[in-house]
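Suppose you are handed only two things: the residues of a chain and a line of SMILES describing adenosine-5'-triphosphate. What would the bound structure be? This form records exactly that question and the answer produced for it, so the two can be stored side by side and reused later without any lookup.

QUESTION INPUTS
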Amino acid sequence: MDYVLTTDSLSKHYKHFKALDRLTMHVPKGAIYGFIGKNGAGKTTLIRLICGLQQCTSGGYRLYGTKDTDKEISRCRRRMGAVVETPSIYPDMSAEDNIREQYRILGLPSFDDIPDLLMLVGLEGTGKKKAKNFSLGMRQRLGIAVALAGSPDFLVLDEPVNGLDPQGIIEIRELILKLNRERQITVLISSHILDELSRLATHYGFIDRGCMVKEISAQELDAACRKCTRMEVTDINVLTRMLDHMHLEYQVLSDTGADIFSAVDITALVLALAEERCSVSAIHQHDETLESYYISLLGGNRYE
Ligand SMILES: Nc1ncnc2c1ncn2[C@@H]1O[C@H](COP(=O)(O)OP(=O)(O)OP(=O)(O)O)[C@@H](O)[C@H]1O
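ANSWER OUTPUT
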């Protein structure tokens, strides 16, 4: 598999504190990689290191196969755009002028594609309005537009939906999907908003206290998150007797409810229960969410 970013036992220490502890991570080309961890887990530290904003203590990383110690690494970083912590935009400038400024900083020869970039992030109608008067969501999208100057093929977003309202979250989600699907941009997103990430990510990396706990593809995660049929009945004893009789795997949740993990013939089960005067009050498919997977992975409710 082709990787845009790999890290090899990457560590960052602040005196005796290990912000990153021999972290190993693999971001495949074309992925939307959800980098998940609670506050202080080390997500921003990793992003700052790969952006060249800080030096690692030991270990290293490769961008497009080039080692961080190689002199070619700066050239590789030009293929990467990033929004780290807050978007780096000039509050007294319009959206267009902000992007124009970034083009100048990068020494790009032409401003011709700025209107397309504004359109892409949905800021085409903002005219002379200054960035300081934008909503948080607009500022975030402008930050992404600035990061896209120079047409990077790897976009790194640090907590991009933090503090956004539901509409703002949807806009950022659609933008990320568009960039990934239509422009084949690989995206690394750090977040602790698990539900939101699960709508986007093709791969996940779970980080805890500076260590990579697990890397998993969305497909593997789907398989790991067990689907089950949740049933509410008037008599749990009748239900468990039936389930035992049908050799089905289940877990009793309460005096009236159970999760059935095996594939079940619902009609046959409901008819059999009715014969025993046990009625079904509710039945639905239930998925283990990304959040519960995260909690079970880390062995306790340590998600903040
Ligand atoms: N300059 C620094 N000096 C000392 N400790 C630091 C420094 N920068 C970060 N840390 C510590 O390193 C740890 C990791 O911080 P980091 O910002 O990478 O976490 P994070 O996963 O991005 O969390 P958040 O979601 O809160 O942004 C934290 O405990 C933080 O306090």
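WHAT STANDS OUT: The chain has two domains: 3-223, 227-287. The radius of gyration is 24 Å.
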